[in-house]
Amino acid sequence: MPRQRFEITEEQEKALQRAYRESKDAATRTGYQAVQLYVQRYPVPEICQITGCNRTSLLEWCRKYREQGTEGLLDHRGGGHRAKLSEEQTQELGEKLALYTPHDLFGPETQTSSGQHWTVEDLARAVERWYGVSWNSRTSYHTHLARWGFTYQRTEKVYKSRRERDVSTFVAEAEKKSSMSLKKGPKP
Q1: How much is the pTM?
Q2: Alpha carbon 173 to chain centroid, angstroms
Q3: Any residues with CB less than 8 A from the CB of 85 and at least 6 apart, and which?
Q4: What are phi and psi of 118, to 5 degrees?
Q5: pLDDT of residue 133
Q6: Contact 24, 74 (CB under 8 A)
């Protein structure tokens, strides 16, 4: 099947090249490059090999370019975590994380014994509580924590089932027995 003729003016070609050079987004640049190569009559398999796109994407980019110009090739994907919260909500979430600790929200039911540090699990519970949103990927939570300057910390090695009152009682009894055995002296 012969390829459909696709021609653009010299002015359109310069605008396409300028948009390619000025774009910082890799996906958008790929679209610009693919359309340029298509206009220059490169074979479709070669364009796909050069740009790493598939034939369907190439033809979709060409259609969008015909209908909307360079604006049609802008990558409007926001990512999975952005799509669920607006920019205002994302900013608000960052402010809340700086203001509250997991202990403030969940009491002793946090992922760390002190409840002073945000973990992915605690962040997931907070986002669910505040916005009714959850993400499938832990990476989305890591991305949000990193965005607000939270860094990875090693987890505390404390058993969640450990009760401090029982531990202090055990230590007190052990010290009492130890001091009593010292008072009695060595056994004959």
Answers
A1: 0.43
A2: 49
A3: 93, 127, 131, 133
A4: -75, 135
A5: 84
A6: no
Please, are residues 141 and 123 in contact by the beta-carbon 8 Å criterion? Answer: yes
Which among 45-54, 109-118, 171-180 has the top mean pLDDT? 45-54
47 closest CA partner among 129, 169, 120, 55: 55
Cβ 57 vs Cβ 48: under 8 Å? no
Closest CA to 93 of 121, 129, 137, 139: 129
Q: In 3D, which of 78, 48, 43, 42 has the Cα closest to residue 60?
A: 48
| Beta carbons of 51 and 30 less than 8 angstroms apart | yes
- The owner of tokens 């009894």 is 173
Q: Where are the alpha helices (DSSP H) in the chain?
A: 10-22, 26-39, 44-51, 55-68, 80-84, 87-99, 102-106, 120-131, 138-147, 164-184
**For residue 74, with 0-12 CB atoms within 10 Å meaning exposed, 13-18 middle and 19 or more buried, which class applies?**
middle
Single out the residue of 115, 160, 123, 161 nearest to residue 139, CA to CA. Answer: 123
3-state secondary structure labels for all residues of 107-144: CCCCCCCCCCCCCHHHHHHHHHHHHCCCCCCHHHHHHH
